[in-house]
Amino acid sequence: METTQISKQETFMGKEDLLNHWLGHRNLTRRVIEKFPEKELFEFSVEGMRPFSDMVKELLSIASPGLHGIVNRSEEAYNHDLNLNTKAELLAKWDEETPVIIDLYNKIPEKDFPKNHNLFGQYNFPIKDNILYFIDNEIHHRAQGYVYLRALGIEPPFFWER
């Protein structure tokens, strides 16, 4: 089998494009949170998985704090202790964090994306990979939220409408 080497790396997606992609996912995840009835958001689970509210708290405790660590080159441990006990509190925190994410993300020079950062003192990967982890983790947990909504007989938002 013949292989071809690429001598020049071409950029598929720029820094601004990646942020807009992520923000699209955040908008969709917010709409998933909105679809949940209050009680089920905090209590419903399938096959021993966590309630969706716990997954949302995880997302909130990773994205902005993770970017803060990247920007400040700190390796503070992951902290999942968020005291958010209503749907309104979760949504308010989600909305509060979005401009923080935008601000912190924009403080990272694109030239630093290939540099390693030890996220939360545990995950020593290139910054771009840490950011992709934030996005991938959100998609993963949002998919669990979709399963929960369907199990509750609630139509989730279309995944392509970000």
Measured between the Cα atoms of the first and last residue, the distance is 40 Å
- The CATH homologous superfamily is called dinb family like domain
Strand order, sheet with most strands? 1-2
Number of domains: 1
Overall number of strands: 2
Family: Belongs to the DinB family.
Pfam family, one: DinB
Protein name: Damage-inducible protein DinB
Keywords: Metal-binding
List the helices and strands and how they pair.
Layout: H1 15-35, H2 38-43, H3 52-72, H4 87-106, E1 116-119, E2 123-126, H5 127-151
Antiparallel strand pairs: 1-2
Helix pairs in contact: 1-4, 1-5, 3-4, 3-5
Q: Can you characterise this structure?
A:
This is Damage-inducible protein DinB. It holds the Pfam family DinB. With 162 residues, the protein is mainly alpha-helical. It is built from 5 helices and 2 strands; from the N terminus they run ααααββα. The protein has a two-stranded antiparallel ribbon. The longest helix has 25 residues, at 127-151. The mean pLDDT is 92.
